[in-house]
Amino acid sequence: MLQFQPPGFGQQVIKTSLGVMAYYTPVGAPWRSFPSEGQDLPPIVFLHSLGGGSSAYEWSKVYPAFAPNYRIIAPDLIGWGQSAHPVRNYRVDDYLTIVTELLESLDAPSNSQYGEKMFKPWKCLYCKNI
Questions:
Q1: Beta strand spans in 42-126 (E)
Q2: What are the extents of the domains in the chain?
Q3: pLDDT on residue 13
Q4: Is the pLDDT of residue 18 over 90?
Q5: pTM of the full predicted structure?
Q6: Percent of the chain whose predicted confidence (pLDDT) is above 90
Q7: Fewest Cβ atoms nearer than 10 Å: which of 5, 7, 8, 75?
Q8: How many CA atoms lie within 13 A of 2 on its CB side?
Q9: Is residue 11 pLDDT above 70, yes or no?
């Protein structure tokens, strides 16, 4: 367990076109009795910033407050945290692609709620591309 991981949350991974991406979601008590519980809750995705040292840690003290009413998805975006760190010059399109792949792999609707520390234009670009 990572030091910042709140109780009841676990790290999961998905394979994206840029590599393996880690994300954090409720997996046990006090939030869930069994892994599939909570799948019917509306998802909320917590996206971290892209500054040095960024990761899902930025939201780790916040997202547990939403766990009773939402399906929490807090990714470490590719190039950050516990996710793959491929050597490349990342572009906005790279992040749009991996967030789309994350939502599709988790069967989360594209109109999911977002908590984000990124620029509002990024969110507009994502919505434009779905």
A1: 43-47, 71-76, 113-116
A2: 9-129
A3: 96
A4: yes
A5: 0.80
A6: 22
A7: 7
A8: 17
A9: yes
